[in-house]
Design a protein that fits this description.
single chain; alpha+beta; 4-stranded antiparallel beta sheet; 4 strands; globular
Length: 70
């Protein structure tokens, strides 16, 4: 199962972290997610039915710039 970590530079408050977590949990094909406010990252375990780019696009639509970390 793919795992992707995203850097989210606009993650500043606990409310931001909660909002990102809500967006991730609302996506189909996402099995687990964890948001790290201190590191401005989100880790996502997802099926191959959704790509990292699709997840990043959904976060962008919600107002959170997200880049896949290498």
């Amino acid at each position: 199962m793919p795992e992707t970590t995203f850097h989210i530079p606009t993650l500043h408050t606990q409310e931001d972290a909660d909002a990102v977590m809500f967006e991730l949990q609302d996506l189909p094909c996402v099995n687990q997610a964890d948001v790290n406010l201190a590191e401005h990252t989100a880790w996502v375990s997802h099926t191959a039915m959704i790509s990292a780019d699709d997840i990043a696009a959904k976060l962008q639509e919600a107002g959170y710039e997200a880049q896949v970390q290498a």
